[in-house]
Design brief:
Layout (H helix, E strand, L loop, with lengths): L1 E9 L4 H6 L3 E8 L8 H6 L2 E6 L6 E6 L6 E3 L14 H10 L15 H14 L1
Antiparallel strand pairs: 1-2, 1-3, 3-4, 4-5
């Protein structure tokens, strides 16, 4: 179980580094889970980058999707350091990114397979 503050080195130029404005941070943990490094390289090849790492580089603390306005996943609990008048940097930048995303209905259609589209159409009709 990881409990308490742990250091995290941020990759310069990433969304996390821009949010924090720093190269190293301390964040609070309370979990038993870790990123499986066996999947680190295959995920990176698909655009999910490990952008925050433990000082020894072995533990992934933050991942980001490079093709998304603000898809950032973390191992720690940013809500522990967030306050109503002083939001956590990741929450603040997430809200900022959300204000620039297209409104509902304005998004281009996703490149889904025809059978998935048919399933979604049937599911929607069944609810009506």
């Amino acid at each position: 179980m990881r409990l308490g503050n742990y250091p995290c080195h941020l990759i310069p130029g990433t969304k996390a580094a821009q949010a924090y404005g720093a190269g190293e941070i301390l964040e609070r943990h309370r979990h038993r889970f870790e990123f499986n490094n066996a999947y680190r390289e295959p995920l990176q090849e698909q655009g999910l980058l490990a952008t925050g790492l433990s000082p020894d580089g072995r533990l992934v603390e933050i991942v980001e999707n490079v093709d998304h306005p603000f898809m950032v996943g973390v191992q720690f609990h940013p809500e522990f350091k967030s306050r109503p008048q002083l939001p956590h940097p990741l929450f603040r930048d997430f809200i900022e990114a959300a204000t620039h995303v297209l409104r509902e209905g304005d998004q281009p259609e996703l490149p889904l397979a025809d059978d998935v589209r048919e399933w979604a159409r049937n599911a929607n009709e069944a609810r009506i």
